[in-house]
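ugh ok so i messed up the first submission bc i forgot one of the chains. this is the corrected input, ALL of the components this time, i swear. 757 residues overall. if the numbers dont match what u have on ur side tell me asap before i send this to the collaborators (the ones from the other lab, u know who)
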Amino acid sequence: MTVTEAPRAVAPATADPTPAARPSGVAAVVGSGNPRTIGQLFIGTSLIFLLVSGVVGVLVGLERIDTSSADVFGDDLGRAYTLHTITGLFLVVLPLLLGLATAIVPLQVGAATTAFPRVSAAAYWTYLISGALMVASFAFDGGPFGSDAEGVDLFVVSLAAVLVAHTVAAISVVTTVITLRAPGLTLRRTPLFAWSSLVAGVVWVLTLPVLAAMLVLAYVDLRHGGQLVGRSDRLYDHIAWVFWQPTVYAFAVPALGIVGDIVPTFGRRRLFKHNAALLLIGLFGALAFGAWAQLGVTNDGGVDTPWLFGGPWVTTGVVAALPVLGLVGLLATTLRKGAPRLGAPLLLGLAGAVLVLAGVAAGVATVIKPLDLDGTTWMTGQANLVLLGAIAAGFAGVAFWSPKLAGKLLPEPLLGLSALLLLGGTLIYAVPDLVTGVMGQLRLVAGGAEGVDDIDTVEALNLVSLIGGVIVVLGILAFLLAMAKPRGAGQVADDPWEGHTLEWATASPPAVGNFGTLPEIASEAPVYDARHASSTASTEAAP
Amino acid sequence: MSAATAIGTEAATATGTEIEVLSDAPPAEPSRPRVLLVGTALATGAAAMLVLTLIGLYLRLRSDVVAGGDAWLPEETNLQLTPVTMGLVTLLMSADTVLWAAWALRRNDRGHALFAMGVTLLLGVAFILGAVYNLQQIGIGVGDSTPALLIFTIAGLHIAMVGVGLLFLLVMGFRALGGQLTGRAAEGVSAASLYWFVTIAVYAVIWYGIYVTK
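and heres the new structure output, hopefully the right one now
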């Protein structure tokens, strides 16, 4: 009898890496279900939106230098600010991380593709079109604080469509990790980025619909009198909770996974206590589920404080710092016990980890009631630390996995410069906001510097923050320049970093299907094990 | 030899050896990763969150108003329990017919499966028609008050949820007609059933939270 199916000890029959005839040109991009192509599209588009968000953010910063007038945007300052923040989160951070996950997670778990490649592709195109419409709605006097009813409608509908796109993209990634892992690759052996994508994806799948529900309600309300949430000047209050802790942490979960995969590779050592790292990322994800926080902003567009904002909010704000601190400790131990080599992905990753840690630490102060930081620029600074940390980690991921994404390496000097500019710039950008928050400066859409006693100091700090914003934009430009000038095209080794996880066991870039057949995976670092086993065998065989 | 090459060689060797050793053994059980079921479970969770968010908001706002000593619903509101209870019963019956369809498919009983699927679709359409009629009889307009706004939005979202469920069942029904979903490969119907059950559970929450407790 002929055995026609692979036995359980090896991978199920995945498609062989066959260089079949492929469409070329636009058809290859538009019709592609290849997760690598879709991931590249997500990442590339998010970087374009990042420039939009960054430039608008700097212009908004200009307005804060002189708080008595608004010279650039005039009455549209609120709309410009919300364009900067909403674009930054939903059109930059989320798609950057989702794109990376769509391209890399199947490789990390030994799958041929994502669980739903066409769904991932549909998610990208929905994101692209809806994101463009959302940005355009601001040009039509729409968006929060907009006065054109149709423009506001367009904003609400397009943002809801973006949320749907991100939700289905996340479902595809999560399902890939749950169902398509190679034999032997148990959840406990899953690489940290794949694991963090699973954790974050589940949190996003449960959180983004909550915001979508509020948008549906706003859309209906806008058309029937605007008595609850549907007035454009109230709209942002029902969106802003995603920028506050604990929800904002959900967008930093994959950042921890990215850094967690980069550090052992550059430390040339197994990750110290892999299981503990999985647990800490899972705990951070669970604490980041903050959809319940939207219940605090339902009445009259203000922030209400039901019992939820007593115990649970304070508890999550304090406890959420612990897993991040613990994970950073594990990573530091890994580097200390290993033989680390310096590399640009490591620098970017560490910059991201430091910023996220600083943001989570700032969140602890947010929940201390006597400090009265709720609604001040302290929260703005905290969100900027967390989200720019996630972006820096996303950049680290792009640099680290660039051989798999594009078959190229990015120039290290530019990446290193980008890391330094992002780290330094973000700190200079966010820390003055924290300080002015303590001094009583409110969030820009909540009144800004109205009622602040020492207005001169606040304006001076706002200037410092603006300088930080400019440095961040320069850091982003350095990264974009690095992407535009890759090195080693066509001659990159399959495993240039001597990586630990499964994606480094295939070609750079991978052929369609990623892998042929795989052996039973026996650890969380199979390539590291194989490399050490072969080097040990070579040593023993030597005369 | 690079680690990548080592793993590739190991894979090839293992495959060849195993097949040679097992040449007289029966084929290995095909891998069934239940991709569609897991994906549907996640999508169902997202859809449920969409409606449950608004129900939570409704209950919280009502609690605030009632605690302040005011009436939550406007006087002219006509929230009748009987029609919505009939709606719930209709959906519960459809849960039974969905189970029947899945059971029949597992036994390759296409006749029963298609009949059960058809009855399910009929019950679903009946529910939607009833729900729309109930909204017309409620006595208040969408923009009349906060409760009205929420009731109409919640009911509308749930009707959309039921519509998606019907479409899902319809697609699976057509695939069954085409012979793609018989026997053990009935995962698609299981996935559609899962979505349908959650849709019913969400309606039970609406029924109790809005219509029973008023």
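quick check: DSSP finds six helices and no strands in chain B. that seems consistent at least. Chain B touches chain A through 55 residues (CB under 8 Å).
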